[in-house]
Amino acid sequence: MNIARTHVPHLAIRPWLPAVLTLLVLAAAVALSIDSLSAILPPSLWWQALWSPDTHDIQQIIVHDSWLPRLVVGWLSGAILGLAGTVFQQVLRNPLAEPMTLGVSAGAQLALTVATLWAPALLGGAGQWVALGGALITAVIVLGLSWRSGLAPVTVAVAGLVVTLYCGSIGVALQLFYAPYLQSLFIWGGGSLIQQDWSNVTTLASRLAIGSGIALLLLRPMTLFGLDDANARSLGLSLRRMRLVALALAVVLSAAVVSAVGVIGFVGLAAPALAQMAGARRLLQRLLIAPLCGALILWLTDQAVQQLSGAMGDLIPTGAATALFGAPLLLMLLARMHRATRLPAGSEDIARSHAVPFASLRRRFFGIALLMLVVSALALDFGHGPHGWHFSSLDELSRVAIWRVPRAAAAIAAGAMLAVAGTLMQRVTGNPLASPEVLGVSAGAALGLIALAIGANDAGHIERIAASAAGALTALLAILWFSQRSRFAPDRVLLAGIAIGALFQAVVAVAIASGGERAAMLLQWLAGSTYTITPIDATLALVLCVVLCALTPLCNHWLQILPLGEASARALGVSTRGARFALLCLIALLTAAATLVVGPLSFVGLTAPHFARLLGARRPLQQVLLAAPIGAVTIVTADWLGRALLMPRELPAGLVATLIGAPYLMWLLGRRR
């Protein structure tokens, strides 16, 4: 067996296409760099400015101490993220793993947010150390939660995502309450490459050199990570120890970039994928080519940003715009790629799963359903008013039910639909990191909302729903088009969804980084809000929930067979193309219906399937039956608490769902062996 190729998908592509695209991107980056440098300084003075600038010429000082360090920092940051992303994907055996999987960016941003609000003196000379400390602490928490499982890839990845969502929710809550004091973090959160000296160049260059050397020393054990755990142990690999070393390397590399320039998204995920598409099948090849891809993506992005926002590019953060240039490149390669037939990551475990006794499942289902009814009754009748917590009288209830009932009904429907969509997504792709948002439908809805906000500031509720629906439909059609040539193979669907979602989210991130009322409105909607729910919205949500969820049992046969792989499914008479197309459409409809009503509630779609599995659901229909009420009770509880706890202020349901659900899931993960 060729160990180096065990988990890399066969992504056939014309051999000349990657080389042509690379030359075109390189030529564009060089041309833009020359143009931006010409705008600052005449060509006759370039050599002097680069090596021995005249201290009396401010333009030469700008080139030497700002423009050139920025260029080099972009190269180094992209290369480091490409290297870290390759290590993460190899160790965790997951194409969705990336440098921010272990909560590095979320921890750094939360640490800076807390320091800005309550310890601003630390930011004067130790801002980078604050960000680095927050990133490392978060990573340590993730590794601690997954330690008892032997740092199993699935547990590490899920723990990382949960901690990331938790830290991110705390940060967003603080931004909603203290937005005027955190304007500078909008730019930092978007990833800004602006430099004033060469200190970051020195730091990042040393990290890249040391990290590359360690990665090459770990080449053999990381290659063995491509095998399953039993085979890796039989070859003498100490899984826990070597995973810890490799993950620590990737975390330190990622944290170095985050602390130096902020959050640079998409590069760490796209660079390894582009390296594989370019023909890098062996791990050593990917370790060498992925950093080059990352450096090239970030170089092109930063030079384009400088062209769009002035000579020094200080209006648009580069990190937020990275996907605007990286995603089309990834999509262009995907459109030329032949079908891929590998078994989805993690599907082996799903295929071997065994069901729990039906009686036990039934008791748990009715227990969760009863809890949902109790919480719904409390949400309608028990609240916090001027005289404290109290049950509403009949007269008071008749006055407040007109807005409490629609919110509770919409929360129940949205939670159930996202939970079912998340379960189907993870089953279809065989990937525990997959969530409804991976399809890019939520990002498309957000993009539609932004387009409406730019074109009509006074748009009404119906117009906002229509714009969000148009954006969601656009994202779905694009994903289906890019995936149809591969018969909707899971890895192609994931890559297409990530690329399109990242492209749309880049526009959202740029809008948020601009600050102002538009940024606050988007943050509130992205956090998952039921503020504007009307009785018509609630009724529509409940009808869509009942209809779409009722279609799910009809797909049970497909959900049981598809994880077995392409050959097995065909042998059992299942048309993989038609089955995956139908399931993807159902997932998209569930996600879009929930998103249009209450916004993207990331936590529920990602974690409700894991809650169901931790409670014993193994077969597809069992998992759906448990995940749906879990999602419903999570969102209705979150909406009730978000409305009542801080009266007269409110927290979006999506934030509260993460804040109350993530600690419990972290506790379950920490106890699991």
UniProtKB/TrEMBL annotation:
Any one Gene Ontology MF annotation carried by this entry is:
transmembrane transporter activity
Protein family: Belongs to the binding-protein-dependent transport system permease family. FecCD subfamily.
> What name has this protein been given in UniProt?
Fused iron-hydroxamate transporter subunits of ABC superfamily: membrane components
Record lineage: Bacteria, Pseudomonadati, Pseudomonadota, Betaproteobacteria, Burkholderiales
Q: What is its main location?
A: membrane
Q: How does it sit in the membrane?
A: Multi-pass membrane protein
* Xref: InterPro entries: ABC_BtuC-like, ABC_transptr_permease_BtuC
Give a GO biological-process term: siderophore-iron import into cell
A GO-annotated cellular component? plasma membrane
Keywords for this protein: Cell membrane, Membrane, Transmembrane, Transmembrane helix, Transport
Residue ranges of the TM segments: 67-88, 100-123, 129-147, 154-178, 244-271, 283-300, 315-335, 365-385, 405-425, 437-456, 462-482, 494-516, 536-559, 580-603, 653-670
**Species of the source:** Paraburkholderia dioscoreae
- Which SUPFAM superfamilies does this one have? ABC transporter involved in vitamin B12 uptake, BtuC
Q: Where in the cell is it found?
A: Cell membrane
Give a single Pfam family match.
FecCD
